[in-house]
Amino acid sequence: MSIILRRNLRTSWMVKQACYSSNAQSGDSAKTIPKNLLEDKQTAVLQKENGAIFDKRPFKLHLDKDKTYSWCLCGKSKSQPLCDGMHKNEFLKIKQRPIRFKVEKTGDYWLCNCKQTTHRPFCDGTHKQPHIQAAVK
């Protein structure tokens, strides 16, 4: 993992930790956050609200190329970072729905556990912001 520091502290990504697949070649200076292959085929962009902060650090998970996963957005799942259907409990009145995703390559990926990422479901370093670090003890 590499940490990218930005000079303008007023940006929302003042400290951005790039969390990407372990499949990237070492020494590759152009590493990027993985892309959700189902991003244009689902309604995740219509869910503007973020879920409850579950943890202040990402979770490393081995993902297979041709498998579809459901990432928990509500933050209430007992099988974090993946969805276990907790959002279906009508008594909890949870508005968020899971984010369905696929990956390009089989490998280890860092999935967001703070539920505040702008690159759902992948970690983009948002958990490093002070208000998220303070929210979870």
UniProtKB/TrEMBL annotation:
Signal peptide: none annotated. It comes from the Eukaryota. GO terms for molecular function: 2 iron, 2 sulfur cluster binding; metal ion binding. Residues 56-93, 96-133 form the Iron-binding zinc finger CDGSH type domain. Keywords: 2Fe-2S, Iron, Iron-sulfur, Metal-binding. SMART domains: ZnF_CDGSH (SM00704). Its cofactor is [2Fe-2S] cluster. GO terms for cellular component: mitochondrion. InterPro entries: CISD (IPR052950), FeS-contain_CDGSH-typ (IPR018967), MitoNEET_CISD (IPR042216). PANTHER family: CDGSH IRON SULFUR DOMAIN PROTEIN HOMOLOG (PTHR46491), CDGSH IRON-SULFUR DOMAIN-CONTAINING PROTEIN 3, MITOCHONDRIAL (PTHR46491:SF3). This is Iron-binding zinc finger CDGSH type domain-containing protein. It comes from Drosophila gunungcola.
